[in-house]
């Protein structure tokens, strides 16, 4: 298992780069394929790097012909909900069509294991306090629809071609490498925790809180923030299950405890010891009041247990990264 060769598509991005490091630590051989549209070459800390785009089928065929991969992990997709509403073609093209290219290249090459980055957005408006795998799937934006489409494709490909896959539906991926080497570097940044910490470090004047009239105890939205290393651990367990001949599966990944926007800001004040100016703003379109995972299936079937469930730990790791970033840009 530890000598497995894994192709990490999108390995230069936020989650992919942490995964590449994690696989390296496990002793795996790793090849990253990334077009560097959102990722960074210097975030790939282990293995081989190939710059390329999933739209380039000929390059994919050459890559699969040149090496033997035991499994593919696919992190390369566009992730901004608002942008997906404005520019759906961009999302369907990359997240669906390009993923089909990848799957077909795998099929031709006889690579039969696939781990897919999916999302809580496939569920749409929450119908229950915690979202488990049986929750109805009714995405409310193109981003969520692209991810659900690929999940459906994967079911059909298993039935017809025997491709085994694990879909991992992240809730709010957050935090940074506990050793401080990697972290979140989205351009533009839209996620709450890095933005709060940029307000703490002075890279931004304030954090805008999108709505404080939700039906939650403090009126701000509740989300399930799951540490990036815990996500990597889940991928590792999923990979092991596939390598051991396991069946295709889908898992919801979160901490199972939600934190409000206000609680995140309070945690950031505690961890950083800095003042964090807040501005209250309008609600952001499409934000449900509360999104919390039920990850019982991942816990029982994979033995997954988040190791960094405490909000302060997660914020502390992200803060260490923000301080490093601030030092490097100043
Ligand atoms: N949020 C906020 N201000 C920001 C960015 C996000 O109040 O500048 C809120 C957002 O409305 C949501 C939560 O923080 O309730 C998490 O948002 P994020 O974009 O990090 O992740 P999402 O839940 O959209 O995947």
Bound molecules: uridine-5'-diphosphate
Total count of helical runs of at least 4 residues: 10
Distance between the termini: 43 Å
Estimate nothing, just give the exact number of structural domains. 2
CATH-assigned homologous superfamily of the largest domain: NAD(P)-binding Rossmann-like Domain
Secondary structure category:
alpha/beta
Q: What kind of sheet is the major sheet?
A: 7 strands, parallel
What does this structure look like?
- The chain is of the alpha/beta class and 330 residues long.
- It folds into two domains: 5-174 and 226-253, NAD(P)-binding Rossmann-like Domain (Rossmann fold, 3-Layer(aba) Sandwich), CATH 3.40.50; 192-223 and 256-292 and 308-329, UDP-galactose 4-epimerase, domain 1.
- The protein is built from ten helices and 14 strands.
- The protein has helices spanning 14-25, 57-66, 81-86, 88-109, 142-161, 192-201, 228-243, 261-272, 296-302, 311-329, and strands at residues 5-9, 29-34, 48-51, 71-74, 113-119, 164-170, 172-174, 207-210, 222-223, 225-227, 249-253, 259-260, 278-281, 290-291.
- The strands form four sheets. It has a seven-stranded parallel beta sheet, with helices on both faces. Strands 12-9-14 form a three-stranded mixed beta sheet. Strands 7-10 form a two-stranded parallel sheet.
- Helix 1 (14-25) links the parallel strand 1 (5-9) and strand 2 (29-34).
- The longest helix has 22 residues, at 88-109.
- The model has no long low-confidence stretch (mean pLDDT 96).
- The structure holds uridine-5'-diphosphate (UDP).
- Uridine-5'-diphosphate binds at residues 172, 190-192, 195, 207-210, 221, 223, 261, 284, 287.
């Amino acid at each position: 298992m530890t000598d497995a060769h894994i192709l990490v598509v999108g390995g230069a991005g936020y989650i992919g780069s942490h995964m590449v490091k994690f696989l390296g630590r496990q002793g795996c051989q790793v090849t990253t394929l990334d077009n560097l549209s959102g990722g960074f070459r210097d975030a790939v800390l282990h293995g081989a790097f190939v710059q390329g785009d999933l739209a380039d089928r000929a390059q994919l065929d050459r890559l699969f012909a040149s090496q033997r991969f035991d499994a593919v992990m696919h992190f390369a997709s566009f992730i901004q909900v608002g942008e997906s509403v404005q520019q759906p073609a961009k999302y369907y093209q990359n997240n669906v069509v390009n993923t089909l290219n990848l799957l077909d290249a795998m099929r031709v090459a006889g690579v039969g294991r696939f781990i897919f980055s999916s999302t809580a957005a496939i569920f749409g408006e929450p119908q229950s306090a915690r979202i488990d795998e049986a929750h109805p799937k009714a995405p409310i934006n193109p981003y969520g629809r692209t991810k659900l489409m690929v999940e459906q494709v994967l079911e059909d490909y298993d039935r017809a071609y025997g491709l085994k896959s694990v879909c991992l539906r992240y809730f709010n991926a957050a935090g940074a490498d506990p050793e401080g080497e990697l972290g979140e570097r989205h351009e533009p940044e839209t996620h709450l925790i890095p933005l709060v910490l940029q307000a703490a470090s002075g890279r931004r004047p304030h954090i805008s809180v999108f709505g404080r009239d939700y039906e939650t105890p403090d009126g701000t939205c509740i989300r399930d923030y799951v540490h990036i290393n815990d996500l990597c651990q889940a991928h590792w367990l999923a990979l092991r299950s596939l390598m051991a001949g396991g069946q295709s599966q889908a898992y919801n990944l979160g901490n199972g405890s939600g934190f409000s926007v206000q609680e995140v800001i309070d945690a950031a004040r505690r961890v950083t010891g800095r003042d964090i100016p807040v501005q209250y703003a309008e609600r952001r379109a499409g934000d449900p009041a509360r999104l919390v995972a039920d990850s019982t299936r991942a816990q029982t079937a994979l033995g997954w247990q988040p190791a960094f469930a405490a909000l302060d730990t997660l914020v502390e790791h992200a803060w260490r990264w923000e301080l490093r970033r601030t030092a490097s840009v100043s």
